[in-house]
Design goal:
single chain, about 180 residues, alpha+beta, Peroxidase, domain 1, Protein Binding, DinI Protein, Chain A, 2 domains, 4-stranded mixed β-sheet, elongated, membrane, ATPase_OSCP/d_CS, ATP synthesis, hydrogen ion transport, ATPase_OSCP/dsu
């Protein structure tokens, strides 16, 4: 299903980019996804309901998403007609990935033993931007007591580990090699 979601996301992304409307669509889609995320189960039930024909599902999408951008509304109608309304979150995640890639942004998870302050996160963000050449980093701080001290940063598939736990593991490897 991830491939299907990516196809919808790519079509929306390309159409929005061509119309010079990408930021507006991104903002609206983010709001819609937040609003419907708790209703995904109901949308999946609608997709699977054999009593609802294509016309009824499209009318439902038109009513529910009437106040959205035309590009979004059109995509929701296509999702409804193909019984894929329950995939809105997956489509959003794929669209979000494309949007971030286009804008040279990425998410980073900063693991630490305690919650970091905004100033500390800002400093870490600056270092990540220098190291990765990204324009913007969206940071999330997660608490991980197993680190003992220091931090571990994950950006995409890259991991920067400056934790005491990692230092001890490296020291243990050196001792094993020595004996």
């Amino acid at each position: 299903m991830a491939k299907v979601a990516m196809k919808y996301a790519k079509a929306l992304f390309d159409a929005s980019l061509d119309a010079n409307n990408l930021d507006v669509v991104y903002e609206e889609f983010s709001e819609v996804e937040k609003g419907v995320s708790s209703e995904i189960h109901g949308l999946k039930e609608l997709d699977l309901d054999p009593k609802k024909n294509k016309e009824q599902r499209v009318q439902f999408a038109e009513k529910v998403f009437a106040n959205t951008n035309d590009y979004l509304l059109n995509m929701f109608k296509v999702l409804a007609s193909n019984r894929h309304l329950g995939m809105i979150s997956e489509v959003y995640n794929s669209f979000n990935h494309l949007y971030n890639k286009h804008n040279n942004r990425d998410y980073a998870v900063v693991e630490s033993v305690y919650a970091l302050s905004n100033d500390e996160l800002d400093e870490i963000g600056k270092i990540i931007i220098q190291q990765t050449k990204l324009s913007k980093v969206l940071l999330k701080n997660e608490i991980n007591k197993e680190l003992i001290g220091g931090i571990r940063v994950k950006v995409g598939t890259k991991v920067m580990d400056a934790s005491v736990q990692n230092d001890l593991a490296q020291l243990e490897k050196k001792f094993k090699r020595a004996h």
